[in-house]
Amino acid sequence: MAGESLFVPALPLGELPAGRVRVVDLAGVRVALCNVDGRVYAVLDACTHDDEPLGAGALAGHVIECPRHGAQFDVRDGSVVRLPAAVPVRTFPVRVDNGTILVQVQE
How many distinct structural domains can be found in the chain? Predict the structure, then answer.
């Protein structure tokens, strides 16, 4: 399948404990990986309000908070949870294969 080759290895699942965020550079795209109760989500590492790195913010459940102005996003779908952000953050498909987190950064 053509889409299969678009998933790129990000890091071993063991390096992303539950409740934590890790930022990785994948094909020139900075992605914040978020482990929510064992399920991994991936969002662009840039707040849509002011471009601040989201990976530096706090993760509480499915919500990541920008450390600068407190904008919040749901990591499952990128939707805005709290202003000042008005535009959703980009999300990326994720899968885990043989203990490795894979992210689809291209469409």
Answer: 1
